[in-house]
Amino acid sequence: MLKRLRNIVNPPGVPARGTSGVSPLLRNDPPAVEQRAALLAGKNVSYTLKRSSRRRSIGLRIDDRGLTVCVPARTSEKWLHSVLQEKADWVVEKLDGWQIRKPAAPRWADGESIPYKGELLTLRVVQSLFASAVVRHGSELRVFVVNDCAAVHIEHAVRYWYRDEAEQLFAERVAYYARLLDVVPQSIKLSTAKTQWGSCTPHGSVRLNVQLIKLPPHLIDYVVVHELAHLREMNHSAAFWRVVASVCSDYARLRKELRAISLSAE
Description:
single chain; alpha/beta; Zincin-like; 2 domains; four-stranded mixed β-sheet; 7 helices; 11 strands
């Protein structure tokens, strides 16, 4: 009788009142990621809201994709609104700065400027009877095409040239700094990450963004040193920065200079 009474009060499969278990069908959890907008310092700002059960505070990040707000899973709207308004001037200033630094998309046409190792090469589209090829000649980057070639084909040819140049240069710089730091990377790979110039795995695989080939040599070297230093210290502790400073004494200035550059998608 007692068992029947319990089943009536709490049917099988339905959590009892006062318990922490809640049926997934009855939960009203907010989405983990959503797009929102807010009025900040007089401007309507769109942003990405990310919730995580592991967070204990609200964090704001601004990059070439805009504003991202990371919050604890059960953040109240009042707390979120308070933080956004408190940081409104900072957010608008940083977003405006990203827009100014954001490079214009190339037109992939004759006469266009192409960034390469901190310089600008002039793109020259040359008609040819042979297969497509890309050759650097002084301050020009010559793309040989057959008949009239669509811009997309010119773009692909230049991007392949970038990759070839990056593979060769990165291998040389890694070999040079690996000797100075007394480390042996297991592999060197090209990356097309949208938010990282480089990375290093615990297994010793160093990944360098192909977009680095557009930057000045001193910044390329800084990223190489930074990632190789992780083979000694897999963190960003004081010990890690001492390793970096052992071959790159002005790393703080270079780090600041790199952060001011927008990482454009390949």
